[in-house]
TrEMBL record, chain B:
<dbReference type="InterPro" id="IPR052157">
    <property type="entry name" value="BCAA_transport_permease"/>
</dbReference>
<protein>
    <submittedName>
        <fullName>Branched-chain amino acid ABC transporter permease</fullName>
    </submittedName>
</protein>
<keyword id="KW-0472">Membrane</keyword>
<feature type="transmembrane region" description="Helical">
    <location>
        <begin position="12"/>
        <end position="41"/>
    </location>
</feature>
<dbReference type="GO" id="GO:0006865">
    <property type="term" value="P:amino acid transport"/>
</dbReference>
<feature type="transmembrane region" description="Helical">
    <location>
        <begin position="61"/>
        <end position="81"/>
    </location>
</feature>
<feature type="transmembrane region" description="Helical">
    <location>
        <begin position="225"/>
        <end position="253"/>
    </location>
</feature>
<keyword id="KW-1003">Cell membrane</keyword>
<keyword id="KW-1133">Transmembrane helix</keyword>
<dbReference type="GO" id="GO:0022857">
    <property type="term" value="F:transmembrane transporter activity"/>
</dbReference>
<feature type="transmembrane region" description="Helical">
    <location>
        <begin position="93"/>
        <end position="115"/>
    </location>
</feature>
<keyword id="KW-0029">Amino-acid transport</keyword>
<keyword id="KW-0812">Transmembrane</keyword>
<feature type="transmembrane region" description="Helical">
    <location>
        <begin position="265"/>
        <end position="283"/>
    </location>
</feature>
<feature type="transmembrane region" description="Helical">
    <location>
        <begin position="135"/>
        <end position="156"/>
    </location>
</feature>
<keyword id="KW-0813">Transport</keyword>
<feature type="transmembrane region" description="Helical">
    <location>
        <begin position="188"/>
        <end position="213"/>
    </location>
</feature>
């Protein structure tokens, strides 16, 4: 009998010890991240956990968040989607059903996010994604209370805004470097859902700026040898070749374009000047770059330098599009502020708070969501002169989409 | 730029594409066609070759020495993997195929773990660009084409004219009889696997001389390598070269003049067509070695 009692006491002690961490975790709020930490979209994907992780650390170091009079620390739970939609869906299901996160950030791959929203929204999980493709589903009907995307938020501007500000910035910065007003543009675009979506807007934006755009040349997403595509572009004698949208592919294509002398100038979407400098890239013609949304390495935004110092100090790799992290970092702080304002983690109250707050972030001093859960802010465009000097400027988005 | 210049430029582009694909295809055709090992991780061998080159050049070594290191390192890796893994799957090629799929993930993640997932590149080993008429010819591409021609010629001679090549072909025809005649079949299999791996190492070194690579570069390249090997005929080096040329030119012209986004589709459609019309490839090949019973 004594033995049985001893065993019972030991078991109870063990259970007590095991139960202790669970008790401690009562004050932890879990935030999920689904991102491509491997696979073809890794250059943008790895910035998500890095940006969210930095924000989580900053919030926790400052004492956490106070919600309903109780203090909470945040914990990031990340999953690699391996640039594979099935993996992204499985990871989202796990984070929602098993890990029980309060919010999800990602994925950066546009069509993946649409699939993930089918899981997060019925489960009433606050979901942020820096994908302009979300405009397809974020409508007044879908985001209203009870609507199927009520808890979904787009943390990058609408595509007509981003494309509009980017096109204007590229043409404005390249004109003085070329010494004349560029008239003819050719676009070279990765042929996937994101590339097709983005290029359709950018094409209209270039046309709205008076550009003649005789061809959009699509390439298979895993292309490494761009010479046939570039030769085709060269045959059209363009003033500017615009590379969209995967930074890794763009940096693969550019040296080949320079060797072929394919155009008089180039635009690289989603390439930070920081990587341009770090890789000691150079060109004998002007090269414009755009960041998503504020540049690492050379920015006209005064907060950007401090942000990227902290970002890399936290261990983030120096990637082609490190600036993408800002489509997520600011919104962790924004969400934390919303929870504090709502005084609750209730998703409906959180949405209400998110829609009324004006958040001061790195990207903008006044980040707000419009009634269809989308933000509006400027995009930064830079240009490297043949001599190597880089100049940047923030480009405000157009008020409305081009007519045609 | 004149239409004729564009046309010539596209032919040169096609030759350049063909040379890298051919190097991979020769490795695939030797390993798959002569040993029966279906190594889908061959693309990752190529990627490792590129990473070794990148590490060597980053450490201050010259490009030629880096190429040699890449060949040796991937050849050694091939030896270890053949002895440690694939030799246990020779009787069941499907098992070898599954093992190779697992290897893809393992090798990619080992590289990501130690050297992060970002693009790696080296300075162009040759930077001169010749301009002939309106056609631009990059010296680094000429270098890759020249090395490929040399490697193809050596491999072809080794397989067709040397004593080892004859013994190897005999063991492909009938392993049991070849073994009875005193040919060390298993050792030959190891030798072919190491040779194919070393060629992948060379391919990786040449690839990073042309383009940046990532830990995930191997996937697309190996698919094209298998397509070329099958179109040309398994085990047929001449076939691999011819098929590589055909594929390179088809890719170059489809991107230049056709629906550019279908570039890869043309290659694989061609492979499917050839496999239906000529199951042993355009130039004839083995059906893979007959398995020892």
């Amino acid at each position: 009998m004594k033995t049985v009692l001893k065993m019972g006491a030991s078991a109870a002690l063990c259970l007590g010890v095991l139960a202790h961490p669970a008790f401690a975790e009562d004050n932890i709020v879990k935030i999920g991240v689904v991102a491509a930490e491997s696979g073809s979209f890794v250059s943008a994907g790895h910035t998500l956990p890095a940006g969210v992780g930095l924000a989580v650390k900053q919030i926790n170091d400052a004492g956490g968040i106070n919600v309903g009079g109780k203090n909470y620390k945040l914990e990031m739970v990340k999953r690699d989607d391996r640039t594979d939609i099935a993996t992204a869906i499985a990871a989202t299901q796990e984070l929602v059903r098993d890990v029980k996160v309060q919010a999800i950030f990602g994925s950066e791959t546009h069509d993946f996010t649409l699939a993930m929203a089918k899981i997060t929204q019925p489960a009433k999980i606050i979901h942020f994604a820096g994908n302009s493709t979300l405009a397809k589903i974020l409508t007044p009907d879908s985001v209203k209370p009870g609507g199927e995307d009520h808890y979904l938020f787009q943390s990058e501007p609408q595509e007509f805004q981003r494309s509009g500000s980017t096109a204007r910035g590229v043409l404005t910065l390249l004109e003085p470097l070329l010494g004349y007003k560029p008239k003819k543009s050719v676009m070279i675009v990765g042929n996937d859902a994101t590339g097709q979506f983005l290029s359709s807007y950018y094409f209209k934006a270039l046309k709205a700026e008076g550009q003649d755009v005789p061809d959009i040349i699509f390439y298979p997403p895993d292309t490494t040898d761009f010479s046939p595509f570039l030769t085709r572009a060269k045959s059209l004698n363009p003033d500017i070749i615009h590379f969209w949208y995967n930074g890794d592919s763009t940096l693969t294509a550019l040296p080949q374009a320079l060797e072929l002398g394919a155009a008089k100038s180039y635009f690289l979407f989603g390439v930070d000047p920081g990587i341009w400098k770090e890789k000691q890239l150079s060109a004998d013609v002007p090269v414009a770059m755009s960041c998503v949304p504020v540049c690492w390495g050379e920015s006209s935004n005064p907060k950007a330098r401090a942000y990227f110092d902290a970002y890399f100090a936290a261990g983030a790799p120096h990637g082609v599009t490190s600036s993408v992290s800002l489509l997520y970092h600011d919104y962790v702080h924004f969400l934390a502020e919303a929870w504090e304002k709502a005084g609750s983690f209730d998703p409906d109250k959180t949405v209400e708070a998110l829609l009324t707050l004006h958040h001061q972030g790195v990207v903008s001093d006044d980040l707000t969501f419009n009634p269809t859960h989308q933000v509006t802010h400027a995009t930064e465009v830079c240009a490297a002169a043949p001599g190597g000097a880089i100049s940047c400027s923030m480009q405000q988005p157009p008020a409305e989409a081009p007519k045609s | 730029m004149r239409a004729v210049d564009i046309f010539i430029q596209q032919i040169l582009n096609g030759l350049s594409i063909a040379s890298v694909i051919t190097l991979i295809a020769i490795g695939v055709t030797l390993i798959f066609g002569l040993t029966g090992i279906i190594n889908f991780a061959h693309g990752e061998f190529l990627m490792i070759g590129g990473i070794v080159t990148w590490l060597a050049v980053s450490a201050g070594l010259g490009f030629p020495l880096a190429v040699v290191l890449a060949i040796l390192a991937v050849g050694l890796m091939g030896y270890i993997l053949e002895r440690g893994l694939f030799r246990f799957t020779l009787e069941r090629p499907t098992n070898g195929f599954i093992v190779s799929l697992g290897l893809i993930v393992v090798l990619q993640h080992v590289v990501v773990l130690f050297w992060n997932p970002n693009q790696k590149s080296i300075p162009r080993p040759l930077t001169t660009v010749w301009e002939v008429g309106g056609v631009r010819i990059a010296s680094v591409r000429v270098m890759v084409i020249a090395i490929t021609i040399a490697v193809v010629a050596l491999s072809f001679r080794m397989i067709t004219a040397s004593r080892y090549g004859r013994a190897l072909r005999a063991s492909v025809e009938d392993r049991d009889t070849a073994a009875l005649m005193g040919i060390p079949v298993r050792r030959y299999i190891t030798g072919v696997f190491v040779l194919g791996s070393a060629l992948a190492g060379l391919g990786g070194a040449l690839l990073i001389a042309l383009f940046p690579i990532t830990p995930f570069t191997g996937g697309t390249m190996v698919m094209k390598g298998f397509a070329v090997a099958l179109i040309g005929g398994l085990g047929n080096i001449y076939g691999a070269v011819a098929a590589g040329l055909i594929l390179g030119i088809v890719e170059g012209f489809s991107a230049g003049y056709g629906f550019s986004q279908w570039t890869d589709a043309y290659s694989f459609a061609l492979m499917i067509l050839v496999l239906i019309v000529r199951p042993h490839g355009l130039f004839g090949g083995t059906s893979g070695p007959r398995m020892a019973s």
